[in-house]
Amino acid sequence: MKIAGWFNCGLRLPSLAWLVSIALTGCASQPLYPDLATDIAAAGLAPEQVALSIIPLAQNPRKPVLYRADALMQPASTLKIVTTSAAFAELGLGWRGETQLLVAKSDLANMATGRLQQPLIVRGLADYDLDYSTLYELLQQLQARGIHSLEGGILIDRSLFADPTAKEPFDQSPQAYYNYQPDALPLGRNMLQVRVDSRQSTATSEGSAAKVLLIPHWQALQVKSELSITDAPCKNANTDGWQWLYQPPSQQAAAIKTNVPHTTQAANLVVSGDFPRNCLFERNQAVFSQDVTLELALRTSWQHLGGTGFGALQFGKTPDNYQLLARHYSRPLPQLVHQLNKESDNGLAQLLFQRLANPSNNATDLTLAQAEQQVLLWLSQNQINTKGMQLDNGSGLSRTAQLSAEQLAAILAYNWRQPWAPEFISSLPLAGQDGTIRQRFQQTPVLNQARLKTGTLRNVTAIAGYVWDQQQRPYVFVAIVNAKNASSLGRPLINRWVTTLVQSK
User: Fold this and answer.
1) Where are the strands (E) in 379-440, listed by range?
2) Is residue 8 part of a domain?
3) pLDDT recorded at residue 426
4) What domain range is 482 assigned to?
5) Which residues contact 459 (CB under 8 A, 6 or more apart)?
6) Are 13 and 7 in contact (CB under 8 A)?
7) How far apart are CA 81 and CA 93, in angstroms?
8) Which of 48, 223, 287, 370 is packed most tightly, with the most Cβ within 10 A?
């Protein structure tokens, strides 16, 4: 279906009839978009590079606007609307991720001695708020119960999610913060703050080493910089291409099961490469695998708390006959979705998406493929067309994800009439005010008149959400551009269309 402008009054739309609970009566005497094809051509875009769907909501007499609305397009981060909608529906507003500390029931008698003989279980249940300070506080709760020696070691249970299938990271940037892969125990999102400083007096000559600091600063990790100072400008400072040589504690040291502090088990990190003179550089990135990050955080936290006897670190599933000792909950789902949509948090989107593989219980080995199947089933059960839809990882950080503007508009219209509508709508960035659209539509009529999720990738720009006209009548608005220079060519066009709608009476 390829129609430009407002629909003719008599045109029947069976595929969209369920979208709104109103009778679309009346007909706009003057179309807002008299010639969309001309608008698109004037923007330097081809017809097949654009898709548009505008659906009136509530008691709005206007007719829908569709332009290539059924064409499958790359949605970029507007796909997060699908994930967050399914999360509200399938997980529920009260859902929280969880981190658990468990001990074998047969070991409970040993707690009186302060020495655990069986492994302490650290179990991850998709707690996205598990940061390094929270892990410290959980271990602190153990010590408050008199436990000071983990002679049985620690078993890490992150079996809620299956191990991710090895694949090339998006845009070949495995260390980038946006490439965080979902993990059932997402400690610190596996990110460290890398701080590199060549401003100190000792780093003034060619070949001198810049100072490298990792935050948090773990006593179990010794960092050695072999970064050579160059005359390149500071703007060229970048950690890409550096060599990170990690030397873990010896197997013998890691397996100590006596009351000997593990201070002798320090690991080493050697950083080599080039760095500009007289520069300060900071960014968050993945330096280690999640396994290494977990071990370093656990060892250092336990040592700082005065704990001893840190035994072997294992990975597996929680056995039977274990009892819960301490737990931490994430924020409730509405707060997580607020962060996800406002800031377009890819890691959180992928975590919630994978959790949707089995929303009713804590089954193990959940996969992204299972999640996609479950979400597509949920959409079909709610009479939303899923033909050709591909969700991949649920975040939009993908070159294979695709859907149509019509499908995305249908999901937005569905959300409008659900009990969670206030939470969902408020999670979308407010035009000119916050989130990924805080710098857009400022000092324009659109300011505060639209709630819109943005989507941006190389060759993709998109926007999807709700727009209100001058009479405060609401609309679903979805526009997607897939083209070379999509942002520079497509964004001004989309902005004009949104502005026109806001100014309409």
Assistant:
1) 403-404
2) no
3) 98
4) 14-93+333-503
5) 74, 482, 483, 484, 485, 486
6) yes
7) 16
8) 287
